[in-house]
Amino acid sequence: MVVKLKLGVLASGRGSNLQAIIDACETGAIPAEVLVVISDNADSIALERGKRHSIESIYVEPPAKGKKEEYELQIVEHLKRHGVELVCLAGYMRMLSNTLLDAFKDKIINIHPSLLPAFKGLDAQVQAFDYGVRYTGCTVHFVELGMDSGSIILQSVVPVYQKDSKEDLAQRILEQEHIIYPRAITLFAEGRLELEGRKVIITEE
Ligand code: GAR
């Protein structure tokens, strides 16, 4: 029997990456299972997706000013209650503080829609489009205090065509996100990611 890595997913919106992860778990493409979905947005499609798959899906009210620790402690409590071993941020639009980072040290990963360290922050696809790059892409990386600055696990390169609209480009990037996020989770599940300084070494199978 395959031992499945226990995942908790944090998502704020549409949840297409969450869906890609759930699907990969359910088909057995990756040795993992999503045990809990947590959102800071009560109306997020991500929560609906989780519920549709009978995964506990919880709204945690965003923190009032100065209450971030209490907010993150609630999230930690939910994740620990489910025995989560890897936390996946999937369109979770908040910076993490040490409360979450210390509770899951080197066990939180994120997907970002650019080739980091280019185009950090919001609307990375639009930033790349407006800048006029010929290639952009997406990155799965470990999460640390800085914004979109943690060690890089996987990247996928996407061409930008002159006839592209912003939406075309975002869609082309998203298709790659749905491929590399499950792949990165598999590498983590197989214990094949080693941190050497800020570099991630992918060890042989
Ligand atoms: C994705 O494109 C993801 O890379 C991005 O938000 C979108 C969420 O889509 N995340 C960030 O920009 C994080 N800095 P989804 O809800 O359909 O997965």
Account of the 3D structure:
There is one protein chain. This protein is α/β, with parallel strands linked by helices and 205 residues long. It has two domains: 105 residues, Formyl transferase, N-terminal domain (Rossmann fold, 3-Layer(aba) Sandwich); 95 residues, Rossmann fold, CATH 3.40.50.170. Helices cover 35% and strands 25% of the residues. The protein has six helices and nine strands. A seven-stranded mixed beta sheet has the order 3-2-1-4-5-6-7, with helices on both faces. A two-stranded antiparallel sheet has the order 8-9. Helix 1 packs across helix 6. The longest helix is centred in the last third of the chain and has 24 residues. It is globular, with a radius of gyration of 16 Å. The model has no long low-confidence stretch (mean pLDDT 97). The structure holds glycinamide ribonucleotide.
Amount of beta strand: 15-25%
Low-confidence stretches: none
Gyration radius over CA: 16 Å
Shape designation: globular
Strand order of the largest sheet: 3-2-1-4-5-6-7
CATH architecture annotation of the largest domain:
3-Layer(aba) Sandwich
The helicity comes to 25-40%
Bound ligands, named by name, code or SMILES? glycinamide ribonucleotide
Question: Main β-sheet: number of strands, strand sense, barrel status?
Answer: 7 strands, mixed
E-strand count: 9
So how many helices? 6
CATH superfamily of the largest domain: Formyl transferase, N-terminal domain
The mean pLDDT is 97
